[in-house]
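Worked Example 4.2. Consider the chain below.
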Amino acid sequence: MSRIGRLCVVMLSLCVLVPRLAEAQGYHWSQVKIPGAFDTVGAATNDAGWIVGNWNGRDGNAAAGAFRYQKGMFIDFAVPGAVQTWPEGIAKASLIVGSYEIPSPSVEGTFDYHGFLYIHTEGGRVVTLDYPGALWTFAMGVNDHRQVVGQMYWEDRWSNFLYDHATQTYTEIAPPPGVFYVVLEDINNHGDVAGYAAVPLDPHQTTDDATWQGIVRWDEEWLLLAVPDAVFTFGYGLNDWRQVVGSHVTTPPNDAILGWMYDLRSGRWTIFTPPGQPS
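Applying the procedure from the previous section yields the following structure tokens:
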């Protein structure tokens, strides 16, 4: 359920806390790269160490393929018949979710986007996810209970959904008051969800100016997350210990993109700085 290459840091709005920032210590960094690829982008990992993501060709164009990485081996991963597949989340039982692109059957030369749930323990069965009435559906995160979060798009708006595979039902997740919109990226086994939100710079919303902050809903309460002094904060994942991860953009002169982890229970923040990256 945790995200790779996309980690973030946090301030709880609505709570009076003294944040405790700490530089990550004792972590081991390992490079995961497909041989010959221009870029390798890991999207998510599970407790078994499986990683899913995409890779780009050397021309740097759109993603050239998707992969599943396990036990030191890269395995091609694709939804049958798709032009492109984007795996985004993976759970303990090797449940994989994401989105895929196929030619539109109604408008020549255009493409449609659908979510999917890949069930490894059922022979690699792929379940297509389409929110009822939406034009496009994007699945982003999954938990061990086969609950999926993601986004759906109509002609005039975006929103978020929860899909429960046990009941095969979809539920729209409304954003909290005071934000323009929310992008949900992950769900843990408690049903907590995490992502990021466009937050108005003017609390009266007299303009469309906004900043990005991480956001999490746990115990049915929404919390906004923002790294102190960061330009933007993005939340991407959370685990069953209620540790939230994401990335943030630092202020000049460094303008670095760094990772973070925030423990919702202890209030501890940890900053991740890759080797050679300015902090």
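Residues 94 and 221 are 29 Å apart (CA to CA). The longest strand covers residues 95-103. Compare this with Example 4.1 before moving on.
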